[in-house]
Hints:
The protein is an alpha/beta fold. It is about 50% helix and about 10% strand.
Amino acid sequence: xxxxxxxxxxxxxxxxxxxxxxxxxxxxxxxxxxxSPKAGKSVRDYIDRAWPAMEELxxxxxxxxxxxxxxxxxxxxxxxxxxxxxxxxxxxxxxxAAYAEIEPVLxxxxxxxxxxxxLTLGQMQGGWKDPARFVLGHPFNPPHLIPLVEVMGNDKTGxxxxxxxxxxxESIGKVTIRVNKEVPGHVANRLQAxxxxxxxxxxxxxxxxxxxVDKAMWAGPGLRWAAMGPTMLFNLGAGEGGLQAFCDxxxxxxxxxxxxxxxxxxxxxxxxxxxxxxxxxxxxxSPEELSAERDALIVALQKxxxxxxxxx
Length: 312
């Protein structure tokens, strides 16, 4: 028997639509709420575009794209749902209003997870009378293709709720990490913010243009990071001596690099330079074309990784 057979997605933007597609692929039904009158069509169009990629990854064997319904209120959408993924706009008043609407009608054992990237769990819990069934469940875009979900509870979270959320996500093919301490941006967003900050610094200092900085990432460390994290990779970088030998050799080098890292800000001039640079890098391709290229590469990487894990 499938755990959490009926789900709900609140908010049907890019993240909500992607979650909806993945939940459907896993064999679950999905009730969707979004105030936009165009939400139904946009979500169905997104599912149609996402389905072939999920099919290629073997995620759709038990699912159907037709088990979706659309609702005019958040309360109606969560009726009977055992797992709710909340994706409403990241404004605390909007979040709190959504929670106040759904809390009286939720199933007693339902789990509600927020996709929020910029708000903290503590901030969002303020919208609940009893936040025991509410957790952070932050994905990486697009959720139907990128495995990561950052899961967090705290002392206000009920016993077993975080574990239930992790079971649900893992049952639909996700890789979860546990966030143990509340910090803005959680874990993965802070990592990518640090990398992007230095990428912007290199462009501003004239070290390389936007396209070449991007190329330096996807053709270099990005490939390695798709296989293992930076600390494990450096552990392998010194052979038998492991991370201790690596640090013995490179401590002064890294300390020097860290001392010289830039601290740019996204002011008007910087944004204009980045926009111009990424426009040149796109070489006339539309966002839709670039997104299709991105998704095809992600699917290829996921398939290759899956084969390696299976053979291992």
